[in-house]
Design a protein that fits this description.
Chain lengths: 47, 318
């Protein structure tokens, strides 16, 4: 494997990791926003 | 010979390996993004109806992503111009780190994602304003005005002026006189800010074929335009104090900052020869950034810390 291919793979890996972090952060953000929007109503449901 | 081979190999890696994460961050124009987020934050905080801190933070993230989308789409379309200008030649697309198509896809995904998320997390008026901002910046400013008229940044400045209205709309679900005044301040501030920069980069813009005012009308006319806009901006900066959006602290800050702006614009108008002329334009450009930042920072402090010095009008009337 030459240097160019190694560098390409390294950058591809860094981009993939960044996308993974962003997706995880978005999932957490959506969860928190949902809880905030529901407010007290989150407990107001039949058990 | 060996050096040449290494250089060629390095160039190959540079252009063939795809972009780094840092390149994608650069595509979003982080410095512009900061000013957009900051002015949107002021719109959010100054609005009479408070937004839950989590929703406010989520809205600001969406607005930041929308600004980033505009930057990436601008770099996609303007890659040819950027490559010919010293100021922009190191951007990821002209350097070959990211292809124009990658920049376009990145920008498009960010644009759609930021608009939908803002609509879901805040409200659909704020999302519509964000969509209009991206549309206006890409289609009206970048694709049309920038290459055709010296009034490009006058009209195109509307895109950069909208963030406080988006922030206000995210908090209140509406548009008001107060948010429109914040829009107007940035709208009138934009031409002298960019023309001061254009005076320093006239050769660059001419080489790239961008009809900026100094290229088309000359440095003298540009300096006159800067002065005229500054004379409009200084009193306009007082408007929030007059309509009750800003208090006494804001009124004092706007008066002093506006007066300094006019003095510096006059210095730029008067000093036309040699290094002193460049220095005057450079000083004005630097100060214009500080002016807008401080003006909005005072509003942020007044509303964020609930400093109520009384409106300018009520103080004057009493």
């Amino acid at each position: 494997m030459d240097d160019a291919e190694k560098e390409r793979q390294r950058r591809q890996r860094m981009r993939s990791i960044a996308i993974a972090w962003i997706l995880a952060a978005l999932a957490v953000l959506f969860f928190i926003v949902t809880i905030v929007r529901l407010g007290g109503n989150v407990a107001n449901r039949p058990l | 010979m060996a050096d040449a081979a290494i250089s060629v190999a390095a160039e190959k890696i540079e252009t063939g390996a795809g972009g780094d994460v840092a390149d994608y961050i650069a595509l979003m124009k982080p410095r512009v993004m900061f000013l957009v987020v900051f002015t949107a934050l002021v719109g959010l905080v100054a609005a009479p109806e408070g937004l839950h801190p989590v929703l406010a933070l989520a809205s600001l993230i969406c607005i930041a992503a929308g600004a980033g989308a505009s930057g990436a789409l601008n770099m996609w379309f303007d890659a040819d111009i950027d490559a010919r200008m010293a100021r922009t030649a190191a951007r990821p697309v002209p350097r070959g780190r990211v292809t124009a198509e990658e920049a376009r896809s990145f920008g498009a995904v960010l644009a759609v994602g930021s608009i939908v998320c803002l609509g879901v997390m805040a409200n659909w008026l704020a999302a519509a304003l964000l969509a209009f901002t991206i549309f206006f910046y890409l289609f009206v400013y970048t694709m049309w005005l920038k290459r055709t008229t010296p009034q490009n940044i006058v009209i195109g400045g509307a895109a950069g002026a909208l963030p406080p209205m988006i922030g206000w709309a995210a908090a209140t679900g509406g548009i008001s006189l107060e948010s429109f005044v914040l829009f107007l301040i940035i709208f009138v501030w934009t031409p002298p800010h960019f023309w001061a920069l254009a005076l320093l980069r006239t050769g660059d813009y001419a080489k790239a074929g961008v009809p900026m005012l100094p290229v088309v009308a000359g440095a003298g006319a540009t300096r006159a335009h800067i002065l005229i806009y500054s004379l409009i901006l200084a009193p306009l900066g007082m408007a929030p104090a007059i309509i009750g959006l800003g208090g006494a602290l804001y009124a004092a800050a706007a008066a002093v900052l506006g007066a300094i702006f006019v003095v510096m614009a006059f210095d730029c108008y008067r000093t036309r020869e040699g290094e002193a002329a460049d220095r005057a334009a450079k000083n004005l450009f630097g100060y214009s950034v500080l002016y807008l930042f401080l003006l909005f920072a005072v509003l942020l402090v007044e509303h964020g810390f609930s400093i109520d010095g009384g409106s300018f009008v009520s103080l004057w009337a009493s």
